[in-house]
Amino acid sequence: MQCIYCGTCCRNGPPGLHLEDAVLYSHGVLDKSLLLTLRRGEPVWDNVAGRVVTLPQEMVRLKSDPASGACILLQGENHCRIYERRPAQCRALKCWDTGDLERIYSQNRAGRLDLVPPDSALAEIIGEHERRCFLPDVQEIVRQLREEAGSGAAADSIGSVLYRDRWFRDYLRDHAGAGEDVLHFVLGAPLEDILQRMGIVPEATDDGLRLREMRPVS
Ligand code: SF4
Known about the structure:
The protein is an alpha+beta fold. 40% of the residues lie in helices and 15% in strands. The protein is built from ten helices and eight strands. It has helices at residues 8-11, 22-26, 88-92, 99-104, 112-115, 121-132, 135-147, 153-176, 180-186, 191-197, and strands at 35-38, 43-46, 51-54, 59-62, 74-75, 79-80, 200-205, 208-213. It is globular, with a radius of gyration of 19 Å. The structure holds iron/sulfur cluster. Iron/sulfur cluster binds next to loops.
């Protein structure tokens, strides 16, 4: 069999990047506005496992078209805007035989610091944001929060991390003109969104911050 360029795999979702794709970023084929970051410790839907999993390591992937869910670089029915320089996963995937893709899928995944220049201001900001808003720590605070039944130090700790995450976003917006499309790559999803995926809704009240537990969907 051979590829008939039907575009089906591109409509099923965008690829994650591997170390060999770093050159696409450094050569400007892929820019920040086309990418998003899923951070270590973030709950994400795993198509293969069919459930939500906590990411053991950071991933960068192409964004999806919000309306169709297809890869953002798919034009029309089946035209890839960067076909000659498409990422490793796209080159490995043959929809009639997923063996090559499965072999590379979890190998040498690229994170943000594999893409941006190591001595750049951007690398420094990414590293500092990770240190100050480290998601495995947030997971642990959420666990403590549940043990405390919503009161006490754990709620204060979440409030502090939320404040820091917002500070980084505001700083990049106000001082570097970064839009939301770029922030999703540089800092990942806002912490409010990630907390909601952990089942916690932060709500501002006159007395400060209230954390509401989301009821599981039955
Ligand atoms: S990068 Fe190109 S080949 Fe890969 S999923 Fe997107 S549109 Fe398809």
